[in-house]
Amino acid sequence: MRELKADSQYCSPFADLMAQFVQEGRSCGYRYETESTALRQLDRFLCDMGLTSLELPKSVVESWTEKRPNDRPRTHQARISIVRRFGLFLRRKGRDAYVPEARITPVIRPDFHPYIFRHDEIKKIVEAADRIPPEIHAHMRDLITPEVFRLLYSCGMRVSEVLHLKVSDVDLTAGILTVRRGKFDKDRLVPLAASLTARLRKYASALGERGPEAIFFPAPDGGPYSKRTIYGIFRRLLRDSGIPHGGKGKGPRLHDL
Question: In sequence order, what E strands does 12-160 have?
Fold first, then answer.
C-alpha cells in the first residue's frame, strides 16, 4: 500500500504514519479532532527528543508517559492513551514500537453527580425563558431563548446540536429535525411534539423568509450562538427560577436538561 504524503502539521519521522493514523480513524466515522491535537503534541515531543528513525523505543515512550507536575489525571490519561493507540497502529504497519500497558493509565474517579431536575423546576426554567426581555444588543434573544431551552429539554439534544441547526434541518411540516454530524459523527432524525412544532412555526414566521443554509437560531452576526453564551443564559434562568448552582463543575449543567 502506498504511504500517504506527510501531513504538513507533523515534522517527526512518523509524519506520514501519523497522517494515516488520523485518516484511518476518520474513515471509521470518528472526527478525531482531540486525537489529532494530541498527536501533534506527541510529534513535537519526538522532534525535541531528536528521534530520527521509524521506531518508537521504550525510553522515549516512558519519557512521554511520565507524570508531569501540573498534570491532571485526565490530561495524563490522554497522553498515555494516544501513544498506546499510535503504538498499536505502528505495530500493525510492521514498525517496531513500544506499547505501554493499559494498567498504567490513571484511574479517574469523578466527584461529579448529575443534577436530576424536578418537573416543577423545568416549568420554572421554561417560564423564566419566556420572560427574557428584548435587548438592543442581543439579536432576537427573547425569541430564541424559549425555543432553545424547550429543544434541550424535550428532545434530549446537545447544546451544540441545537445551536448549529440550519433552516434546512428543521422540517416544520413533518415536525422532524435533522441533526448533522452528532455523536460519533452520525446524522440522526429527531421527532418534535406537535405543540413544539407549532411554536417553531411561529418562531420561523417571526424571522421571515431565509435561505436553507441560514442558522435557525442566529446570533447577532448571523452565525450560531456560542455555548458559553447559552450557558450564561442558563445560569440566569436558574437564578430567576430559584434553583441554586454549586459552582464550576458542580452543576446543574446544561447537559442535565
Answer: 55-56, 96-97
Which residues make Cβ contacts (< 8 Å) with residue 150, sequence separation at least 6? 126, 129, 196, 199
Cell digits of residue 37: 491535537
Measured from the Cβ of residue 122, the count of other Cβ atoms closer than 10 Å reads 16
Give yes or no for a contact between 48 and 83, defined as CB atoms under 8 angstroms apart: no
| Contact call for residues 60 and 42 (beta carbons, < 8 A) | no
Q: Provide the 3-class DSSP secondary structure of residue 114.
A: coil
Helix (H, G, I), strand (E, B) or coil at 188: strand
| pLDDT given for residue 1 in this prediction | 36
Residue 104 CA to chain centroid, in angstroms? 27
pLDDT digits 0-9 by tens, 63-105: 999 988 888 888 888 899 999 999 999 999 999 999 988 776 6
Judge contact between 80 and 105, C-beta under 8 A.
Answer: yes
Check residue 185 and give its pLDDT: 67
Q: With residue 189 as reference, give the H or E element that holds it.
A: strand 188-191
Q: How many CB atoms lie within 10 A of CB 75?
A: 13
Nearest residue to 162 (alpha-carbon basis) of 170, 172, 153, 151? 151
**pLDDT recorded at residue 8:** 60
**pLDDT of 150 strictly over 90:** yes
The DSSP bridge partners found for residue 97 are 56
- Global confidence as pTM: 0.67
Cell, residue 30: 470518528
Compute how many other C-beta atoms are within 10 angstroms of the C-beta atom of residue 83. Answer: 25
User: Any idea what DSSP says for residue 173?
Assistant: T
